[in-house]
């Protein structure tokens, strides 16, 4: 423990997938002797519980009712950590999230983001580009805390299957990457040349022939590791755009922890990662060749998988609890200076 025991409140939507990365690890701070109160209802929070906390960790919420609650908590001397893990002003045009927000709604979102950045004693986020982005809209103190693997993420041995499965976990934001990196086209070329290869996606539809392709629209996070373990090669293509440069590298951690060798674009969060972490970086023009090499090199796949598992053991939330403890403790100190209890 880096600090004296704190009473920590967590305000989050427990049904949001990313809460597994940004809220659940904070809850694990109970292992260091802190008291943790989790409120997953946000707009209907039991305020009395939160007002007894030293610090409240707010994951992503930025609505007007939440702003009112945060102001009241601040007035009562409670420290506020606001956690946000996406560049909400740079969502790709192809993303369903972008289409769900009209122009006026998008402007309101940006105003709410700026308001929360000002209200927070500390803002936590996942990368330097995001930290810079939130400093520009008024965050006074920003801590970078990577996404680590929560206890909820587990992967056992894969079930035996015929052939080689190429897998991609890709939410709606990756529709841009699918189009601009011509992923469908180069996967089709691999399928034409490699009769033993099949493709599986979790999330978006890749539009490949159904006799060689399977899609799961969504998977509960507690089951994700086991699904990934059924891949033989995992891919993470990213186009070089602002939104992707600010992403987290947790997808490669998930692939590695499931014992699956990965191939990824040398963009943003993946720069600097490679064979020691269980995979390889691939230029835009080299995807088909990189995939086919691993298809034909089972020994290389096994070697990369072994390295990835070794790396992933140090990438769990439990192994990195102090990384979350530090910004919460600083928020408490900053709150005491502005509003001594």
Question: How do you describe this structure in short?
Answer:
By secondary structure, this protein is α/β, with parallel strands linked by helices. It has helices spanning about 20, 25, 45-50, 65-75, 95-100, 105-120, 130-135, 175-180, 185-195, 220-230, 240-245, 250-255, 285-295, 300-310, 320-340, and strands at about 5-10, 35-40, 55-60, 80-85, 120-125, 140-145, 165-170, 195-205, 215, 235, 260-265, 280.
Would you mind describing this structure in some detail?
The two termini are 23 Å apart. 43% of the residues are buried. The strands form 2 sheets. Strands 2-1-3-4-5-6 form a 6-stranded parallel sheet. The chain has a 6-stranded parallel sheet with strand order 9-8-7-10-11-12, with helices on both faces. It is elongated. By secondary structure, it is α/β, with parallel strands linked by helices. Mean pLDDT is 90; it is low at 97-102. Helix 4 (64-75) runs parallel beside helix 6. The chain folds into 2 domains: 7-151 and 317-338, Rossmann fold, CATH 3.40.50.2000; 164-312, Glycogen Phosphorylase B (Rossmann fold, 3-Layer(aba) Sandwich), CATH 3.40.50. It has helices at 19-22, 24-27, 47-51, 64-75, 96-99, 103-119, 128-136, 175-180, 183-193, 221-228, 242-245, 250-257, 287-296, 298-312, 321-338, and strands at 7-11, 35-39, 55-59, 79-83, 122-125, 142-144, 164-170, 197-203, 213-216, 233-236, 262-264, 279-281.
